[in-house]
Amino acid sequence: MWTYHPELLATPVPRYTSFPTAAEFGDDVGPADMEHALARVREDEPISLYLHVPYCHEICWYCGCNTGAANRTSRVAAYVQRLGEEIDLIARRLDGRGKVARIAWGGGSPNALAPSQFDALMHRVRAAFACSEATVSVELDPRGFDWGWADCFGRNKVTRASLGVQTFAPHIQRAIGRIQPTEEIACTVGRLRAARVESINFDLMYGLPGQFAEDLDETLRIALSMRPERFAVFGYAHVPHLLPRQRRIDATRLPGAAIRFAMAQQAHRLLRGAGYDAIGFDHFAMPHDAIARAARSKALRRNFQGFTEDPSDVLIGLGASSISAFPGALLQNEKNAGRYHLRIGNGQLATARGIRRGASDRRRGAIIEALLCRNEAECTGLPDLADIRERLAPFEEYGLIAWAGTRLLLDRGALPYARSIAATFDPWRAASTTRFSSAV
Ligand code: SF4
With a 6 A CB cut-off, is 246 part of the ligand 1 pocket? Predict the structure, then answer.
């Protein structure tokens, strides 16, 4: 189905959950940019909120998220207090403008909070914003998701949940510092169903230490028996120079690039065979699920959470390190929890880094998003199109892409190369020294 061309995947590339990517963020933007962007939100414009909880009960060795141990209740309580203040701060700037279509909780693990803290923050969001019809989604750690949490989800009308599963193989769980028995995941799924969560996603990983094809096969079969509506299947990104916690992982046991490629294909084949639609290059969904419907109607989007059916052009990030996306700027809050506390405590917006997006960035961002979400893009008007076509020539020679005038079309076999193809439109990649993860 897919042919392996290692030379086309030799250069690590971004995941393009935004364009420009976070690697291009600088500190020449700040609260004034956030004020300006919020002031431009229109009366009934659909907006999405993202609430970041930078805590987990246990820290997994492979994790690339901005999170720390939730081992001091006073620290978590202080964070909840500031997050509540930031919700009010942003709502005051919007002054009733914008209609919240989506409330997404991520982290870290939102269920590192107590259910009562989650209740309180949801109450604050609902009081501060127009969000009576918003869809609520939560990323969660299945370990410790008890009936108290299930009731909390029911009360707060959470209808989507994403579970960090990664692998069911006990020997790999030990190698990545995340022990979670299969029964625990099954119980969590049962509790989510009882709480009327209608779309459950499993995050799975390939390219893990000591992982073989049969391990991945077994994990996929167990996962399929639980019938989640969605899967996201990621290649493990080993970047210990950026994430010191990954030094605990034995790099000598990581599968090589050819095996990673074969594993990506194995997951794709098995999930497609089980009736799931392929969504972009690493998501899968049951055909009735909202994201599969969005893909069929060419409405699929890409944002910081990956592929999404969320159509909003405005995403407001709340909490330390969260990123807000506006048509004209990408703006990130203080990553450092102490400085975040200080800023919000002083009644200031917490924006610390980011990038303003000009017309050229928006145009290239739209092309990259179209390539990743719809496998095709109209590329007319780009001043460097001739150079881009030259960079894409090797992909064309292998039949992975074709041009219809200025329209670029990706072949079905180009899926594992989609990010590398998208990267040819990214002028920052040539100059950047930032090291990304493997292209597959
Ligand atoms: S539970 Fe999730 S967010 Fe927390 S450390 Fe593990 S992988 Fe990272």
Answer: no
Q: Are 267 and 181 found together in one domain?
A: yes
For residue 301, what is the domain's CATH number? 3.80.30.20
- Residues 350 and 368 both lie in one domain: no
The structure tokens 């150079």 sit at 387
**Structural domain for 133, as ranges:** 15-356
Instruction: Output the tens digit of pLDDT for each of the chain's 440 residues.
Output: 899 999 999 999 999 999 999 999 999 999 999 999 999 999 999 999 999 999 999 999 999 888 888 888 899 999 999 999 999 999 999 999 999 999 999 999 999 999 999 999 999 999 999 998 999 999 999 998 999 999 999 999 999 999 999 999 999 999 999 999 999 999 999 999 999 999 999 999 999 999 999 999 999 999 999 999 999 999 999 999 999 999 999 999 999 999 999 999 999 999 999 999 999 999 999 999 999 999 999 999 999 989 999 999 999 999 999 999 999 999 999 999 899 999 999 999 999 999 999 999 999 999 999 999 999 999 998 999 999 999 999 999 999 999 999 999 999 999 999 999 999 999 998 665 555 667 67
HEC string of 144-184 equals CCCHHHHHHHHHCCEEEEEEEEECCCHHHHHHHCCCCCHHH
CATH code of the domain covering residue 403: 1.10.10.920
What is the 338 CA–ligand 1 centroid distance (Å)? Answer: 21
Q: Smallest Cα–Cα separation from 415: which of 377, 378, 373?
A: 373
Mutate to test the pocket of ligand 1, among 52, 62, 67 (most ligand atoms within 8 A of CB): 67
Q: Which two tokens stand for residue 328?
A: 């004209």
8 Å CB contact between 24 and 138: no
Check if 162 has its Cβ closer than 6 Å to any atom of ligand 1. no
Q: How far is the CA of 65 from the centre of ligand 1 (A)?
A: 7
Q: Are residues 318 and 413 in the same domain?
A: no
Which atom of ligand 1 lies at the shortest distance from residue 108's CA? 3
54 Cα–ligand 1 center, Å: 10
Rounded to the nearest angstrom, the distance between the alpha carbon of 165 and the centre of ligand 1 is: 10
Residue 122 maps to a domain? yes
Q: 383: part of which helix (H) or strand (E)? A: none
Distance separating alpha carbons of residues 42 and 37, to the nearest angstrom: 11
